[in-house]
């Protein structure tokens, strides 16, 4: 039984429409008895489904290949372990260390890594536009750019281990953020100067909320390039910046 | 002297080095204890630890706090407040005796009230580890812990809700709309509480003013709160902001609190400040939030398991006679509570431990999108904890908090739970809902669910002055 449908019978219909459209929250949806209406429930479930899929699915080989990324992996071996053991997502094996030392440019000014993080969707949605912006931008400013890497099951701080092995000056980690119900496409860029294992989180700079409805890739790219230039000039990142 | 810590309950002999290790390994399975490297290695070791724990005396737990008295001010708070007379009456009980006392049908609320002052957080955590989910629910249901701010929370037969009108840009109109929506579903009697995006005293003051103004214009028997850092709120109040409640996150170790930027001196000062300056009419004006795993996340867990640390948070909270304490149970992520099963267990443990500590306890039954849980899990938890007599739940529009990016109970869930369990909102608030025509005899009216009843001719949720005289 539907007691009320404020979409057809509110005290102030204009006001209700405005509330529903102005707020990003789920307002003015009405009810069926004490429960939400079926359409509201399904819309909520659809958003949650997209968020879950972003966490649980992998970045496609095609995306990795098209972006010209060399794929490596953290110590994590599957999705369950990734979620339960963030410590292992920050580390690489000795074999991986050897692999990247052999295959990658040594001691670049800027090393870019892409991590699936908590949203493969974010990587899929942003990388194709963002990466060329960054490599072009860095080269224009005269920075050498290292071999582009994709790290499967990577956490933010894996940038320290990789940067230390490659003796990079600066590492940029493009990583999928934990999805919300409003978007699963949000990516963050973490930047660190003088990467070494155990470097505190506070010494990392971050630009977040990179997605088509937030900070679009093209604007994010310009911001990241500028920030790398600042980090290079000041020889520090995060709280070390003035 | 520490007794021999070994058990043969599963056939082979399992032994343990310390009380702290027994407490950790006796926990129900939690990913956070595994991440910390202190969980039982096998199901057999887990039950062996429970067996050892069941035979420890309360005196042994008192004498072996998980962090030494001289090393940690939270330990000192918990130990110093123990009523020695009551303690002497129960110190020879084993943890098994305490469990059987709590679940015994002859044990009533007064009996629990009588032993409470003799308990430490370690004892409370220990008995929790021996209790099944029904044990926890039944024992929690025996306890009534009330507190009074502008209204009264926790009385028998009531279930309250925090209205959480967060907005990703702290947009004042959107916050008011969400308040209108929540009130139209009958929620908001625990608190109208906002998590601000910006943690500064100007913003905190602004949001305290917005909420207080709304509460006063509609004459709502509830309290407001803006959940910025305690020092930020104090600065805002010094500058004239009206705050009914003062909020702070707590940890169960001194080091954990340091990572939150607080210590007991600061909390003591805030409490004295609140007595003087909070706009609340009742004696209880503190609001604390906790959650299993927060100490590990700041590397301040001292190899203590997350249930014991959570109990210690409540021991600390009690010092300030809070109006509400809230365990934010599924927010922290799957590395601490892996899935719906662990979240539900932790929720039952926390509300039980809070009430046994003697604080007004409620819960944010919630989950993030990277945990193996969904809305069904937290709806189940809300049903279980209404059965247990949780004082309140957090509620957000359609379960979706667009600022904190996680999901909790929906505004809708309040009336559903009132119906299922035949419970009511806080009495003063229920009268107000009746006066507003939103609820009658504990049920929503046809007017409920329409936020525009609060809009009138002013479209931003403020009453017109002419109707306010």
UniProtKB/TrEMBL annotation, chain A:
GO cellular component labels: ethanolamine ammonia-lyase complex
Keywords, sorted A to Z: Bacterial microcompartment, Cobalamin, Cobalt, Lyase
Superkingdom of the organism of origin: Archaea
Binding, adenosylcob(III)alamin: 156, 177
EC number of the protein: 4.3.1.7
GO terms assigned for molecular function: cobalamin binding; ethanolamine ammonia-lyase activity
Catalysed transformations (reactions): ethanolamine = acetaldehyde + NH4(+)
Cofactor note: Binds between the large and small subunits.
Region span, Disordered: 1-35
Names of required cofactors: adenosylcob(III)alamin
Pfam families documented for this protein: EutC
Pathway: Amine and polyamine degradation; ethanolamine degradation
A single GO BP: ethanolamine catabolic process
Transmembrane residue ranges: none
HAMAP family documented for this protein: EutC (MF_00601)
Cross-referenced NCBIfam families: PRK05465.1
Family membership: Belongs to the EutC family.
Summary of subunit composition and partner proteins: The basic unit is a heterodimer which dimerizes to form tetramers. The heterotetramers trimerize; 6 large subunits form a core ring with 6 small subunits projecting outwards.
Primary role: May catalyze the deamination of various vicinal amino-alcohols to oxo compounds.Would allow this organism to utilize ethanolamine as the sole source of nitrogen and carbon in the presence of external vitamin B12.
Protein name: Putative ethanolamine ammonia-lyase small subunit
Taxonomic source organism: Natrialba taiwanensis DSM 12281
UniProtKB/TrEMBL annotation, chain B:
Pfam families (UniProt xref): EutB
Binding positions for substrate per the UniProt entry: 162-164, 195, 289, 364
Ranges of Basic and acidic residues composition bias in the record: 456-469
Binding positions for adenosylcob(III)alamin per the UniProt entry: 196, 248, 297, 403
Keyword Ion transport listed: no
Keyword Cell membrane: no
Swiss-Prot/TrEMBL GO biological process terms: amino acid metabolic process; ethanolamine catabolic process
Pathway noted in the entry: Amine and polyamine degradation; ethanolamine degradation
One MF term in the entry's GO annotations: ethanolamine ammonia-lyase activity
Top-level taxon in the UniProt lineage: Archaea
GO cellular component: cytosol; ethanolamine ammonia-lyase complex
Signal peptide: none
EC main group: lyase
Its EC number(s): 4.3.1.7
UniProt-listed InterPro entries: Aldolase_TIM (IPR013785), EutB (IPR010628), EutB_dom_2_sf (IPR044939), EutB_N_sf (IPR044941)
Family membership: Belongs to the EutB family.
NCBIfam families reported in the protein's UniProt record: PRK15067.1 (NF011649)
Function, as annotated: May catalyze the deamination of various vicinal amino-alcohols to oxo compounds. Would allow this organism to utilize ethanolamine as the sole source of nitrogen and carbon in the presence of vitamin B12.
Oligomeric and partner information: The basic unit is a heterodimer which dimerizes to form tetramers. The heterotetramers trimerize; 6 large subunits form a core ring with 6 small subunits projecting outwards.
Record's protein name: Putative ethanolamine ammonia-lyase large subunit
Species whose genome carries this gene: Natrialba taiwanensis DSM 12281
């Amino acid at each position: 039984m539907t007691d009320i449908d404020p979409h057809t019978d509110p005290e102030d219909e204009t006001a209700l429409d405005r509330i529903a459209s102005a707020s990003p929250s789920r307002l003015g949806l009405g009810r069926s008895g004490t429960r939400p209406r079926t359409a509201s429930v399904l819309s909520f479930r659809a958003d949650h489904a997209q968020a879950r899929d972003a966490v649980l699915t992998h970045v496609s080989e095609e995306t990795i290949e098209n972006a010209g990324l060399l794929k490596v992996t953290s110590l994590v071996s599957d999705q369950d372990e990734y979620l339960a053991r963030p410590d292992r997502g920050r580390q690489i094996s000795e074999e991986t260390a050897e692999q990247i030392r052999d295959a990658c440019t040594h001691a670049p000014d800027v090393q870019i890594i892409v991590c699936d993080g908590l949203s493969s969707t974010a990587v899929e949605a942003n990388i194709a536009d963002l990466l060329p912006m960054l490599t072009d931008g860095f080269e224009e400013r005269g920075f050498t750019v290292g071999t582009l890497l994709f790290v499967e099951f990577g956490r933010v701080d894996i940038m320290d281990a990789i940067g230390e092995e490659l003796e990079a000056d600066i590492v940029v980690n493009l990583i999928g953020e934990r999805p919300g119900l409003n978007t699963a496409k949000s990516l963050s860029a973490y930047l660190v100067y003088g990467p070494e294992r155990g470097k505190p989180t506070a010494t990392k700079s971050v630009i977040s909320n990179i997605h088509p409805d937030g900070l679009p890739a093209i604007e994010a790219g310009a911001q990241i390039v500028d920030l790398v230039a600042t980090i290079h000039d000041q020889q520090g990142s995060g709280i070390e910046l003035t | 002297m520490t007794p021999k810590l070994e058990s043969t309950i599963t056939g082979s002999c399992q032994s343990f080095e310390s009380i702290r290790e027994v407490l950790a390994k006796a926990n129900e399975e939690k990913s956070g204890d595994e991440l910390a490297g202190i969980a039982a290695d096998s199901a057999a070791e887990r039950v062996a630890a429970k067996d050892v724990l069941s035979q420890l005396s309360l005196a042994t737990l008192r004498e072996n706090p998980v962090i030494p008295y001289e090393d940690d001010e939270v330990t000192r708070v918990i130990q110093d407040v123990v009523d020695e007379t009551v303690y002497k009456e129960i110190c020879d009980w084993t943890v098994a005796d305490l469990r059987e006392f709590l679940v015994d049908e002859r044990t009533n609320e007064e009996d629990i009230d009588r032993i409470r002052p003799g308990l430490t957080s370690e004892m409370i955590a220990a008995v929790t580890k021996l209790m099944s989910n029904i044990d926890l629910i039944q024992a929690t249901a025996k306890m009534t812990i009330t507190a009074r701010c502008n209204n009264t929370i926790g009385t028998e037969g009531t279930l309250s809700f925090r209205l959480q009108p967060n907005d990703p840009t702290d947009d004042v109109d959107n916050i008011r709309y969400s308040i209108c929506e929540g009130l139209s579903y009958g929620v908001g009697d625990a608190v109208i509480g906002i998590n601000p995006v910006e943690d500064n005293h100007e913003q905190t003051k602004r949001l305290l003013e917005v909420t207080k103004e709304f509460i006063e214009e509609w004459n709502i028997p509830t309290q407001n709160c803006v959940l910025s850092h305690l020092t930020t709120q104090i600065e805002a109040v010094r500058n004239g902001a009206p705050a009914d409640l003062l909020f702070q996150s707590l940890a169960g170790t001194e080091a954990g609190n340091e990572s939150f930027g607080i210590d007991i001196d600061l909390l003591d000062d805030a409490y004295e400040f609140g007595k003087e300056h909070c706009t609340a009419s009742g004696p209880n004006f503190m609001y604390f939030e906790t959650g299993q795993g927060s100490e590990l996340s700041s590397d301040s867990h001292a190899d203590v398991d997350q249930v014991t640390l959570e109990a210690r948070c409540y021991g600390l909270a009690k010092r300030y006679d809070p109006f509400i304490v809230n365990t934010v149970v599924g927010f922290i992520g799957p590395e601490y509570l892996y899935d719906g099963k662990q979240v539900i267990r932790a929720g039952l443990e926390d509300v039980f431990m809070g009430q046994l500590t003697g604080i007004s306890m409620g819960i944010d039954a919630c989950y993030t999108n990277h945990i193996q849980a969904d809305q069904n899990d937290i709806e189940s938890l809300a049903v279980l904890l209404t059965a247990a007599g949780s004082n309140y739940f957090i509620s957000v529009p359609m379960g979706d908090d667009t600022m904190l990016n996680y999901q909790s109970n929906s505004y809708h869930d309040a009336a559903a739970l009132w119906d299922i369990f035949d419970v009511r909102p806080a009495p003063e608030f229920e009268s107000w809902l009746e006066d507003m025509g939103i609820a009658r005899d504990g049920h929503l009216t046809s007017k409920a669910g329409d936020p525009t009843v609060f809009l009138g001719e002013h479209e931003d949720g403020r009453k017109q002055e002419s109707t306010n005289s």
